[in-house]
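Case study 2.
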Amino acid sequence: DVDLGQLEQESCLDGWEFSQDVYLSTIVTEQDSGAYNAMKNRMGRKPALCLPAQWNLVCEDDWKAPLTISLFFVGVLLGSFISGQLSDRFGRKNVLFVTMGMQTGFSFLQIFSKNFEMFVVLFVLVGMGQISNYVAAFVLGTEILGKSVRIIFSTLGVCIFYAFGYMVLPLFAYFIRDWRMLLVALTMPGVLCVALWWFIPESPRWLISQGRFEEAEVIIRKAAKANGIVVPSTIFDPSE
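Prediction:
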């Protein structure tokens, strides 16, 4: 019998050749320019997607691939700690759009990652942005929507669109087999959200808590007009 644990193991000195039947490029097979050139000089020829020319995510470094997901959720954890505090300090709408920009921007910057370390640092920031805009949007929605819609929004509304995004993701990945181009496609919808700034109001509850009564009154009157409701003048009476 052979005890495989006693066998001498050799690292991937000459690298690996990766199949491109399914994906043209992933972060596992991504080229690191410095390592690639070093391997090219040592071998005297152009390597064919070999590991030393990649981000070293197989063999003794195969733990790095799942680590990316773990670090993403570290970002989610950090964002969940600070997002509520930020929205209380700077407003629900401001934090919502800033963190949407943060998620979109850092996701786009991942396209230009030169190495694994740069990729995962940006991924942590993406995680922080994702959970922060989720929390800010949830709070903003529950504060500006009426009672009849609030329950639907806080249960089905948020979850359905969240699930829809994950349903569409495999479709994008099916047609786009290069991870950089896939990130481009996934970040572009985030740019379209900029237009929502002019349609989503700040939370009147938050404005009132900050003593910004006139701004809150404008939003409430506009909402009342859109819903065909006459607002009782007493709710704007400072003595009340």
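The chain has three domains: 11-61, 63-198, 201-240.
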